[in-house]
Amino acid sequence: MTIPDTGLRTEPGSFRDPTNQVFHLGGDVLRGLDEQAARDYRTLAGTEFFRTLLAAGKVCGTEPVDPLPGVPWTTVLRHERIPFVSHPYEWSFGMLRDAALLHLEILRAALDHGFTLKDGSAYNVQWRGVEPVFIDVGSFEPVREGEPWAGYRQFCQTLLYPLLLQAHLGVDFQPWLRARVDGIEADQLRPLFRGVRRLLPGVPTHVHLHAAMQRRHATASTAAVRDQLRAAGYSRELALATVRGLTRLVERLDHPATESHWADYQRTCGYSAEDRAAKERFVEAALAAGPRPRLALDLGANDGRYARLAARLADQVVAVEQDPGVVDRLYRRLRADREGRVLPLVMDLADPSPGGGWRGVERASFTDRADADVVLALAVVHHLAIGRNVPLPEVVDCLVGLTRPGGRIVAEFVHPDDPMARRLSANKPVGLFPDYRTEVFERLLGARCRIVRRLDLPSGTRTLYLGIVGD
What we know:
The protein is α/β, with parallel strands linked by helices. The protein has helices at residues 35-45, 48-55, 93-112, 152-169, 174-179, 186-189, 203-216, 222-231, 236-252, 265-268, 273-288, 305-311, 324-337, 366-369, 381-387, 392-401, 419-425, 438-448; strands spanning 9-10, 20-25, 28-33, 62-65, 75-79, 115-117, 125-128, 131-134, 140-142, 295-299, 316-321, 342-346, 372-377, 403-414, 449-456, 462-469. It has 3 domains: 9-79, Phosphorylase Kinase, domain 1 (2-Layer Sandwich), CATH 3.30.200; 88-252; 262-469, Vaccinia Virus protein VP39 (Rossmann fold), CATH 3.40.50.
């Protein structure tokens, strides 16, 4: 929706809290606050704990700006722009756990200083590279003695339950979160934790007891439940104890990345040392052949070799890989190396994140979010065209669709006689891919881009292209 005569665009994912809403004006991210929210923010901004969180980068940069004409809000804030917005179902286990720990750290600091968070959603966290940052400044409000943390249920459904699912059962949480924008319900998880599994850490209290309490109070109003808790002596100290307990639980949860075919792909993919060196030189030259990229996408990033290379020449790199374990391993290495320009995401390029939530636009699709200056499609075209039966014209259209006009595509075409292409074709009907040929790919790419450079790798079975997308 566009507000008449202002040029402001409402953020489709910001409508659930009527006291504040996020807008966009040009390159600015703005938040409007109603009268009560404005009073709460002024109090919050005067606290030492909030200034400390801002200075540490744990809360997104925020400052008040002059009121805008035609905007029905008492106060307007400007936030820093996050380099690339991602969704929790695109994160690895380690990313979701670190997001949960950041949320709990901020909540604990708030409670210590007379504030709380009205929400507990994983969507309130975004990333600067591999550093999580809390973005929902409108969630802070003064704590009312005797009232429970209103965001507890959201925290369980979008953060804790997905972590329990993967840590205790080894089940990837991403499909569960993608299927439901509000997360996993306690009653959905409860049947999976029966028998001895009932006693696994966090399950008795936060799954079974929580589900029982929800059923018990299903017909009671929120106010009635609050009155009962207040009468029973619920206090801020108990809320803090709950947060400390959740923090200890989340810190203990882990799911080390398991071995997979993709985990060792760089060793098994068949590149010679000469191929690898020539490929790296080509990619580096392509990244340097123009203005510094604001955003680069590395599709099929695997261990992040080329994402790291791109990070030396681009402001932000989004490294997309379908294997959650490979992404988690990459995330942990990037964190250890303090690499601040690479954001690793879990995503199957043959089934990328669609639009979701209310009217399908509350959470934007990957295609809508991606507007890259450079797209690296290295050793990925054959996996889509042969491995997933995606026609070559569609593959090229996909790459162009992720690239802004004037942007660059660095594509690798694996010839039909390459060992990896033959391996992918081995279980396919003979003659299924008659158009999977170098000259066909080059013609298709040339029809959508201006090919400015071409290189056959020394092995003779792979060709690299640099194309410029037309305006």
